[in-house]
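Example protein
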Amino acid sequence: MKTTASDTATRRTISTTATCDAEAHTLDTKVVLTLDLHKAFVGDQETILKWLQNRHVVSTVCDYVKYFLTNHKAILMAVEAESEGFELGNKGTPQGSVLPAFLFNVGMLGLPSELEDIEGLQHSLRADDIILWVTGGSDNHMEEILP
């Protein structure tokens, strides 16, 4: 079973428990997989824009996001001193903005129905956490079900 995530911003935790069903005399493994997507949209701005376009987000929204993400400058201020403005580069989304939540929600739109199509897989979505679990079957069966 894989225990590393392809996205370094995603933390993945796997818990496995073997339990014995006394009535059926079987040994079933139970697996819980949690994905924490807390920094799913802290990345290259060009990648974020391509991602939106691939999801057929209307061009006016893409244009707004592009404008919002580009040409950001920061100024440091302390008491009566103020720095010159400096470029922030093309990584991430501005802190405190609603953009990361919007992008996350757009990204999650189709996920519940896709997860429901996987037989034997249970799921729960809470904020930026995805919890997947399988409650029975062999280890091989679980490896086939879990992503």
